[in-house]
């Protein structure tokens, strides 16, 4: 588990094909690896990866075909900057919100506009994630815990203050960029709980308008 508070910006130094998937080397910059052991988790742009080698100034991790297919990791190359966060410990401050490091989908940056000293981004999420994105709710973008400041269908807006721009890779965002999205854990579990016994049915993929009407949630 993670908090979505980015601890450092790292740099991808190598991407090596290995047995049908990829092994990646990330140089971790100012991230303190003193308490990191082999097998520990580190979030890279919001993707939970396992450290399999620790050469000193970074770590190697294996990236599965599943991860390559479901995230924006495929767009990374040697020299790409990435957000980094070590896994939560029992004494960590929960400064953002609970983040699993399991990406739900890939979004696209649609626009970037100056807003006083902040920057306003508009991002389009995959259609199937729209129901989990709420005004003033939390969302994780490339591992960064952020507050949704506007919603229009599957598009949402973020207002990013100078500190966040300086401490994450969001300063690099331009229209057309692909980003990893993880919706709020509570929203996903609430939807599943509301299905009740129907959650055990093979076709139970999520809430529908007819389901809500049938159970008295819609008038």
TrEMBL record:
Pfam families: Lum_binding (PF00677). It is an enzyme of class 2 (transferase). Coiled coil: none annotated. Keywords: Repeat, Riboflavin biosynthesis, Transferase. It comes from the Bacteria. SUPFAM superfamilies: Riboflavin synthase domain-like. GO terms for biological process: riboflavin biosynthetic process. Lumazine-binding repeats lie at residues 1-97, 98-194. It catalyses: 2 6,7-dimethyl-8-(1-D-ribityl)lumazine + H(+) = 5-amino-6-(D-ribitylamino)uracil + riboflavin. The keyword Repeat applies. InterPro entries: ATP_synth_asu-like_sf, Lumazine-bd, Lumazine-bd_dom, Riboflavin_synthase-like_b-brl. Its EC number is 2.5.1.9. Residues 1-97, 98-194 form the Lumazine-binding domain. Pathway: Cofactor biosynthesis; riboflavin biosynthesis; riboflavin from 2-hydroxy-3-oxobutyl phosphate and 5-amino-6-(D-ribitylamino)uracil: step 2/2. One of its GO terms (molecular function) is riboflavin synthase activity. PROSITE patterns: LUMAZINE_BIND. Homotrimer. Catalyzes the dismutation of two molecules of 6,7-dimethyl-8-ribityllumazine, resulting in the formation of riboflavin and 5-amino-6-(D-ribitylamino)uracil. This is Riboflavin synthase.
